[in-house]
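Chapter summary example.
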Amino acid sequence: MSYQQASVQQNTKTGSGPSGLATPKQNSKMGNSLKAILAFVPSSKCQKYLLEDLEEMPVDKMVDLSGRQMRRLPVHICSFRELVKLYLSDNNLNYLPPELEQLQNLQILALDFNNFKALPLVVCTLKQLCILYLGNNKLCSLPLELRLLQNLKTLWIESNCLQHLPEVVCELSLLKTLHAGSNALRSLPPRLQCLRELRTIWLSGNLLAEFPPVLLDMPFLEVIDVDRNSIRFFPSLAHLPGLKLVIYDHNPCRNAPKVAKGVRRVGRWSEETPEPRKRSGAVIDITMDEKPLLPPAAKTEPEAEPC
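The structure predicted for these 307 residues follows.
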């Protein structure tokens, strides 16, 4: 075996490049490890390394600091007062500096995949926000100050620790899209029907035992996703004129929701006419009598307050 062959074989085993040099993949891993260590060091030089010499606001008015292992947002970013988009996803943030309030032109803020247990109130001062990503954190609630974000059109709060949909969401009058999947929601507040602009609601992976009644009073909804819940009975959705898609798969349901012509269904019996259905040659009408009773401890939802 020649020296070159032996070298190649050894490099294959160790994963190193020629002459023992690290491969690009190894360099990437070492770089990420170094960033993780430097994230603990507050010195300006270390923070400058994490930001890769980002000293001036980019021409496109966007800053993407995702995946930098940051534990705090460098304050000098808040001096970019014309900034429109700020992506801070996939870091180790649990705090934001009050100086963030200076970014009054910010329209998109991504805080998903961090360690926030509470939404920093400074976020609620950014009144031009249109899109707010808060998914994959540790949020158990949302502050009442969120109501100040009256330009918000898209809100992502999926994969948190929410047991109830915060009532303050019902005050975001321009909200068009709500992503609230993978929480522990058991119901929706009746006031949700006040959101006249809401078109899409994603509720997959929650603890819904029944189809949320409030959705039956929201005729402008276009997409309803209740995949992966515990819903056993689906009421008719044929009266919702705006509906285009309903996703109800992975529920222990005994029927498919009835929908108007042209509405797409994704789930069991989606290609069949749900009411009535045939079994053993007999026609069996599915009536509201088949709807499972609520557990004794369950409370009747309060009537919706006037919008």
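To summarize the output: The first helix runs from residue 3 to 14.
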